[in-house]
Amino acid sequence: MEPTNIRFGGGATETLLHPLVAVWMLIAIVLILIFPRNKAIVPFLLAFFTIPLGQVIVVGGLHFPVLRILILAGLVRRATLRGELSQSKFPGGFNAVDLAVVLFTVSALAIVSLQWMELTAFIKFVGDFLDSLGGYLVVRFLIPDREAVWRTAKVLAMICLLHGACMVNEHFTRKDVFGYLGGVGIDSTVRDGHVRAGGVLGTIQSGAFAGPLIPVFLWLWTERKSRIAALAGLAGASAVVAMSFTSTSFMAYAAGLVGLAFWPLRKQMRLVRWGIVAMLAGLQLVMNGPVWSLIEHIDVASGSSSYHRYQLIDTLIRHFGEWWLLGTRNNGSWGWEMWDTCNQFVAVAVTGGLLTLIIYILILKRSFGAVGNARKQVSGNRQQEWFLWCLGSALFATVVAQFGINYMIQLQLVLFPLLACISVASSEIRQTLVGDVELRDQEQLASAGGTAQRGFAFLSAQQGEGHGKVS
Description:
Blueprint: H1 19-34, H2 41-48, E1 56-59, E2 62-65, H3 66-79, H4 96-116, H5 119-142, H6 146-173, E3 189-191, E4 194-196, H7 203-210, H8 214-222, H9 227-244, H10 247-261, H11 269-286, H12 306-318, H13 320-323, H14 344-377, H15 382-401, H16 409-470
Antiparallel strand pairs: 1-2, 3-4
Helix pairs in contact: 1-2, 1-3, 2-6, 3-5, 4-5, 4-14, 5-16, 6-9, 7-9, 7-10, 8-9, 8-15, 10-15, 14-15, 14-16, 15-16
């Protein structure tokens, strides 16, 4: 049976704001507004991933989660940018990934609103729209250059270390320290005798947050001045994944390492991709069930619900006619616990229909494409190639994690900084190459001009000698 608390109209009926959270929120807002632009990402992310999602201010029936207030503060900072071109709000310019994110959020809002056709529902969906698009615009603005990318990686390492320590404590005490603030439960989940620590994000969400960051922290390790932060991030992320004890967490962690393992084949990835397609097509021909039924055989952590993940995809495909246009509100009637859309792609399809799903996949495709194109442009520069490869591996791990959980706002705010870092890295590489070409052209032009001047001087001298002989 579908829990009534997850249906539309649920949520807090009154303000839930712990005094410590209120103070921390105010401090974070002040720092976001006064810090230099490429440093303001630190208090933003630090506050965003240490405040429980359930901390909310209710005014006149309208919900203002603390996390949404932080996004609004970031938007205010972005709107008050002065002394620079408006394009600088999108470092490197408004690119294909930015356009895809905007189209995705607009499509999701339009279709889910048509699906419900209720004013109160529309108000709620506008809040979700603000969280998604506003969150993306904020991190895209606050990560303007490579230094901000480096600083983002370091603050994520700090967050992972903090979460890891809290979740290790939770494993032994079976009490979540963030639960004392309110907004998340205090008692830990126990399944098949294993404690599944949740921390501030939740059990699966915590692993889906930390696991894909392993490649980013391994890149930090190659930045010699950042090795302490890298070690902290690796230790913290590993602890989060281990303490959450879920298959999704372990798979995301492993996916990042698998992505890095393909580093020697980085110039043959086109062949690798087509090989994977051929392998899946072959499996589809010889397997008794569909190829996506492989998911039900994945049970990395004891008691995982891999069969449910398989059923979500299979049922979605079988009910294509019900959701492709405007999504559906009736997926709960498709089978046992089909209301629990713990798969990001299924969740997007159910709420936004086929169009929104296609645009969401387009975001990921264009991001992978940006990484691949940038890597080709710096081919031979192993430091630059490694940096881009780590970003691509983190994105790959994120995609794997999305098959086990749907992304609420806090998980979106680990995906969006990754997309912003990819945009910054690819645009800076492109600008550097353009600058090198222009400099080379100028040098060639100057060289040609010098040759021409020498030739002109020589001719002038010859003519002078000739005039002298005539005279």
